[in-house]
Structures are given as structure tokens and as C-alpha cells.
Amino acid sequence: MSRFWRPGSEKPTAAIVEDEEGGVIFLPTSTSSSSSSGFGYASLERQRQRLPVYKYRRAILYLVERHATTIVVGETGSGKSTQIPQYLKEAGWAEGGRLIGCTQPRRLAVQTVASRVAEEVGVKLGEEVGYTIRFEDQTNPGTTMIKLLTDGVLIREMMEDPLLSKYSLIMVDEAHERSISTDMLLGLLKKIQRRRPDLRLIISSATIEARSMSTFFNIRRKNSLLESADRLPNPEPAILSVEGKGYTVEIHYVEEPVSDYLQAAVNTVLLIHEKEPPGDILVFLTGQDDIDAAVKMLNEEIQYRGRHYLDLLILPLYSGLTRGDQDLIFTPTSKGKRKVVISTNIAETSLTLEGVVYVIDSGFSKQKCYNPISDIESLVVAPISKASARQRAGRAGRVRPGKCFRLYTEEYYLKEMQPEGIPEMQRSNLVSCIIQLKALGIDNILGFDWPASPSPEAMIRALEVLYSLGILDEDAKLTVPLGFQVAEIPLDPMISKMILSANNFGCSDEILTIAAFLSVQSVWVSMRGVKKEFDEAKLRFAAAEVCLFNLLLTFLG
């Protein structure tokens, strides 16, 4: 059995060098190829050892022991999401009833990563390895050691346990996505570390700017006694770079800009099927509407073109899918078939589809856009960044050399595409974010330490909205009891206020129904092959004389 670097034990033989990114890098020596544990089947263990992150196992454990924050920059396919939590558990970070928390920005990623980790550890999901997402808790208090959860759920947990005392370590995965919950969580974790120097953080990402993140988490302790204590970790973040497990990916561009990326994507799928060897295809589109349209267009082409195209299996992938449809995505492709997965940007980093050899990149994604002057937030189709384009291309080289077909010109990529995306914090409505911070006792919102500062206009607008709803008082503090009640409900503050006020008007049942409708993307679940029945079911609920939005406007005054 291989040795692990355990907390408090002798450091491994290796070279630790200063890194120009602002931290340190571990240069590993040769590693043993023997099995590392008895968990699961031998085939799973061999798969674990073939992952690039495996040879950095002792390096990761060493840096986590010695440094308060460790930044792991791991390329797509390195195994960081599934393996690092297991290494930490094996090294003893979950002993004594403590938890190893691992966050993901998306619910689907939480479920799939948790399922994979549980399979590799050889336990039933919900026991030693569990997950928590909104409205679903698959954990067992006292038994669960590795807990997967979304960034937002961990923030909600802080309202009951502000210092996250039951966690020994928090791993923030896919931090480069920079969702509003991720940025808020990073700021809160930095604040917690000042009160809990023993709390270890791992910031994991594929494309994150290690230098800026290292600077952000470089906490200078004011107490010299704390600084000299041997048992406390070094506050200077460590940086570790892990190569990916990938093959060469050929990049192909269109010669002229395309006028209809949806039609171009469909045509490219058919062209790949005609000209290229076997291998699954991953298509990146913007949202459910585009995906459903592309699925319909491809199925029509299959019916029209005949037998040669019947071996194409067309599958959508977006966050609103049922669990059964999600499982189809990860099922190995049958012999003689070619799977075509049409996805949102959820497949950029959070999920790994092993059989993908060809990627079609539309160059667009749906992004939140908020105008604080008009107080209108909307989802708009916007160009992606170069970082996202590289991530998409990287999905094609997992099992053998692949190809990425970009539906934009090379000149556009080199000269016009932005290097990095704009953090969601800087283009979103901040009402829910501010009320959560207020509930956590952070009154100086403008002085809060953000990884990327939001615009002053958005902050002021959010404070004005909360004051007008009676959630904040004239001193910008939560009102009693309304403000604290609204903060406890995991919904948009306007909807929460509506629910709490409904009792005064004697219409709680009706308002709860309206609130439920407003809190989900869609109440309709479309099933493949039953479109006619689906449309008929929707028509049974149609009523021309009722307008939900007029009812809401009347109620809210």
C-alpha cells in the first residue's frame, strides 16, 4: 500500500520552489505504481492511478497541511474534482466527525461528481459520500465524510454555522466560472479564515488566474503570536499546476462568418457523420430553446436522409433535464452508434463525457445582463471568451486525438474575442446577494472584500429595492421580524415578501401557487417522442381570461 502524506508527519522528498504566480509549486519525484487503497474494484483503482492528478497526491496533501489556502490549476480531465476529496479523506481530514466540503457551481455537477466519488470509494451514495443541493439532501449526519454541495447551499449553511465549524476543509471547484454565488463564497471564506486559521481551503479550477487569486487569499495576520505558532498554516497561498489527460485537438474555423449558428451547427454534425471516423459529437449551444430546435432539426434530417443516419443518437443536455435523461448522457455509446450531445456551457468544465471526439463550438452562450438604471435583469445571447473557447475545445481530446469545429473565424478569435469572461457579480442583480450578507451579520456591504467588485450603481439599486420592500431600515439593517424572515427563505426577496404578506390578505394558497410557478424555469417537462401528447396537455391548462402578471402587479401594488 502506498504511503500518504498525513497531517503532522514528515514532509515528502521533493523540491519546493518559488513561483512567479505568487505562491509555491511542488515538483514531484517519482511515484509508486502500487495500488493506493482497497476501495472499489481493481479496475476503478487502475483508472484512478492513470489520472494525471495521481502523481501529485502527496504534493497536494503536503501543501494543504502547510498552507491555509492551496490553489490547484488543473487542466480538463486531470481528475481534480473526483480525486482530491478522496486523497483528503484517506489522509485523515475527515476524522473525528469533521467534514470535507466540496462545492460546485451547478446542481447537475454536484450529483454526477458525488455519484462517481461514491462509486470509487465503494460506498452507497448518501453514506460516507453524500451531496446537498436545493430541496435535496443526500447525506447522513455522523456518517458522511465527503460532502458535495453547491456554492449557494454552503452559503445558506453559514446562516446556522457562520464559521463552518463542522468542516475541516472546503474545496471550491470550478472557481473560474465566477458565478455570483462563487464570488460571494470566496469573500466569505476569506473572512472565516481570519477567525479560523485552521480552516483549509482548496481553490480548484481549469483556467483561473492563479496570481490574482493568490493575492486575494494572502491574509496578513495582525497577531505576531499567531504568526509564530508552528501549528498554524502558512497564510501565503500555495499554487500547484496539474497537467491534463488529453490528446491533440485540431482546431478548425469557418472561412466566413455564419449568419445562423444553429443551422451551421446542424450542418456540421451531419458533415462530421459523413466524413469523419467513429466518435461522439458534443455541440455547444446557448440554451434549452436552441437545443430543442437543434434536436428537432437533426431528427428531421435523419428521417429525410434515411438508413445511413439512423445510427445517430441525439441527446440534449441542460440543467432542467430529468435524472433519467441525464443518465442517458453518461451511458457508453452502443457499438455502431454515434452519440450527439447538444449542450449548454454546463459541459465546458463541470461534466466529463468520455466518448467525445468532436466538438462544435457555436461561439455563444446565454449570460445574465443587469441594468441597474432600469432595474431589469435578462438572459442575453453573448459571445464567449477565449478561456471558454479553450475549455470547449479541450473536451474533444479525452480518449484519442480529436477535432474542434469553431463556427467563427480565426481572425475573430485572435483579434476580437475577450481573453476572460466578465464575472457574474459585475452583471447581475445583487438584491439576493446583499440580503444574505446582511443575514450573516455583514453590515458594511460596500467594504466587503470581493474577488471582483460589483458596480456601485448595482449596489445602490439593490439597497433601494430592499428598503422599499421594508426589508432594510433607514440604517441599512435588516428589519425585525420581516427582514430576518425574508432572509431565511431561499427565494427571491420579492417573492419571499409576497408570501409573508399574503396572510394579511387571506390569499396564502393562491400566492404559494404563484410563487412556486415563479421559482422554476418551467413547470413543463418535455419527453422525447410524445410531442403531440405534450402539446395537448399544455392546452388543457390554457385560459385566455387569466393573466398571472396582472394578478401579481395588482397584489404588489
Automatic annotation (TrEMBL):
Give the transmembrane region(s): none
Enzymatic reactions: ATP + H2O = ADP + phosphate + H(+)
Cite the Helicase C-terminal domain residue spans from the record: 265-441
Helicase ATP-binding domain ranges (all copies): 61-226
* UniProt entry keywords in alphabetical sequence: ATP-binding, Helicase, Hydrolase, Nucleotide-binding
Q: Name one Pfam family in it.
A: WHD_HA2
Tell me the enzyme class.
hydrolase
Could you tell me which Gene3D superfamilies the record lists for this protein? 1.20.120.1080, P-loop containing nucleotide triphosphate hydrolases
Which Enzyme Commission number(s) are listed?
3.6.4.13
- Kindly indicate whether the keyword Cytoplasm belongs to this entry: no
Q: Name one GO molecular function term.
A: ATP binding
Report the PANTHER family cross-referenced here. ATP-DEPENDENT RNA HELICASE, ATP-DEPENDENT RNA HELICASE DHX35-RELATED
What name goes with this protein? Answer: RNA helicase
